[in-house]
Amino acid sequence: MTLRSRFSFVALSMACGLSLGFLLGPAILNAQAARLGDPAKPLSLAKTVKGTAVDLSAGKGKQVYVVEFWATWCGPCRTSIPHLTELQKRFKDQGVTFVGISDETEDEVRPFVDKMGAKMDYAVALDDDRKTSRDYMQAFRQNGIPTAFVVDQQGRIAWVGHPMGGLDQALEQIVAAKYDLAAAQKEFDGRAAREARLQDLNKAFGKYMEAASKPDAKDLAPLGEALVTMAEKDPQILNAIAWNVLTAPVIKTRDTAFALKVAEAAVGASGGKEAALLDTYARALFDNGKKAEAVAQQKKAIELAPAAAKAELEASLRKYEGK
Which residues does residue 148 pair with via DSSP β-bridges, in sequence order? Predict the structure, then answer.
């Protein structure tokens, strides 16, 4: 499910799991306590596991920092690590420093980091009794990981979001001194309304999952149609619904025809230009016995995917081709 984590839920606070509530993150119902443009708090770190210690104050006036919160147990976090490494290499000479922060123990984090090796090529540190998490994640009401914060040259929080959801574009603008902080704040504020709507959708999805977890479920159609209506043609939400229907282990009655309908709607709503959505569509076609069409759509997904995601997609393509 990694590609879904990369591309399907941009501009949302994401978390790890199977239900939409897990995938899309808990809803943010109240106004944000902190705002973009606020001064970044110092990082309270217990230990640096990889790289050199990061001191935000030392780089004020010249350095940009990406502070990312993650955990070894989080699948989407593991997926985003190579992407963060690519960005660190890309922006290193432009004064950008990345640091990944976990609230786990050194015994949990160090073996993971050592195993990742060059795939995780940026600073990694341990939070000090979750103090940094409180100053960043809680202050901005971010409930899911991975979540990244960009601290600009002036020492302000300039961007908050999923590492795969626009971080590279934000960095390009920030290092070029072309970043519109007011526009970014407007976009950030707009997430609250959307995520409040997701609260109701998550409840409806829970009902669908509960019903589908029973063998030979008979009442899935109206529950599924309600989900599609509530999605309001949002391609990311439609994609999440389709992927869960296709893959969630808890489902005992899997309506692949419904998943295909929803996946096709997601692709149509997105204009057919998103690799993750095409990947889901291909899976739905394959699961419905339409192998040739699945191959064609998977090839399109591979063409659109970034280099870091192509191997995953190519593995699925080989399966669809029967190789």
Answer: 68, 161
Domain boundaries along the sequence of the chain: 32-179, 191-321
What is the assigned CATH class of domain 191-321? Answer: mainly alpha
Count the neighbouring beta carbons within 10 Å of the beta carbon of residue 42: 12
CATH architecture of 32-179: 3-Layer(aba) Sandwich (3.40)
**What secondary structure letter does DSSP report for 40?**
P
Residue 103 identity: D
Euclidean distance between CA atoms 270 and 231, whole angstroms: 13
Can you say whether the dihedral through the CA atoms of 280, 78, 69, 102 is positive or negative? positive
Entry pTM: 0.60
Distance CA 273, CA 264 (A): 13
Give the up-direction half-sphere exposure of residue 157: CA atoms within 13 A in the CB hemisphere.
22
Question: Which candidate, 142, 145, 132, places its Cα nearest to that of 65?
Answer: 132
pLDDT digits (tens, 9 = 90+) for 53-85: 999 999 999 999 999 999 999 988 998 999 999
